[in-house]
Design goal:
alpha/beta, four-stranded parallel sheet, about 25% helix, globular
Length: about 425
Amino acid sequence: MTALTAIFSTVARPPVGGISPMSSVRSRSVPRSIRSTRSRAGGTTGSPSVTPLSYQASNSSRSTAGSLSSEAQELSRQRGMARPVRVVYTWAIVGMTITEKILAAHSGRPRVEPGEFVSARIDVLMGNDGSVSGAIPVFKKIGAARLFDPDRVVVVFDHFVPNKDIEAATLLVGVRRWVREQGIHEFYDEGRNGIAHIILPEQGLLVPGDLLIGGDSHTCTGGALGAFAAGVGSTDLAAAMALGEVWLKVPASIRFTYHGTPGPWIMGKDLILLTIGRIGIDGALYQAMEFTGPVVSGLGMSERFTMCNMAIEAGAKSGIIAPDEVTLEYVKGRAKRPWTTHRSDPDARYAQEHDFDVSGLRPLVAKPFSPTTWRRWMRWRGPRWIRFSSAPAPTPSSTICASRLEFSAGRRCTRIRG
């Protein structure tokens, strides 16, 4: 933990009985002009309303009442204080989360705090057939002629292809023409396409430490690589295409820790469904969901992508998992450029922390149309079906009983009754 100390000259009674000035001086004894201000964490600190270091430089040599401010002198007169003493205020700068570190690095700041607004440099910008078609008119309307960097823009057709009608086909003709005009090399058209959120990491276009902005809410999938990945609308996408920067509010982080020994067939999908069942579809509004713990460390990359992909289903701005050996093994041989790894500091602050013991957890199925509602599903046991009742699952205790279909003795279940 790093500490900053500001030294202020004020007045107080001399120490009595070995009690230090710090223990004998209350905040109400400090002149209003240098009283503590509200901290970034929401509490109070001893930091003054002026810049601490400049205040220290201009005041640390003062040792007489005559050198004090008129307000301090008046306070001394009213309270009959004998002589001025130097009061030392110390406040701590706590660590940062992985999300805050990435945003600080991309905004040119030594640190950022939740709630701050920053203009951050973009490493990768992704648009799909739907979002790019909506962004092009805005791009032209704001007077932009060229992309900030065609090599950092990826366009993937994964929503409207194959085209279902003439209208969709005509729309994409215009997008293809614009892509050629802008010289975008990473263009994944029909026949070469796939799911955009998977193409980026598979093709090495997204690496740990990146800041990715995408014209799709599930862009948060990329957080599995230890990158900040978030979706934006077509208007913000157009501005980012022109400027290479994005204006963001730094999200607070929520840490989710998973431990224990899960049951067979448990995957990342089960963990994220369990999580959303706990916090609800609005439980992480505009916050960064940080997934950690030994169970997450044991997941493969495909399952990590799944967990981060569904962060948006809880209203989150992003989902993220700190890079480890599994991540780096996936990145090696794919990455088209260097990467940077970040981890949350031990003393980083979180808006919330949730701990999950997934021992004995069985596979889960979400009942349409919400990931927070479960159907206690059927299981195959020998020659007959066993059916469970339907019920919501706000807590793990009521979701652990939910199950996907199990396969037993080589029999394959082909349909579900009821």
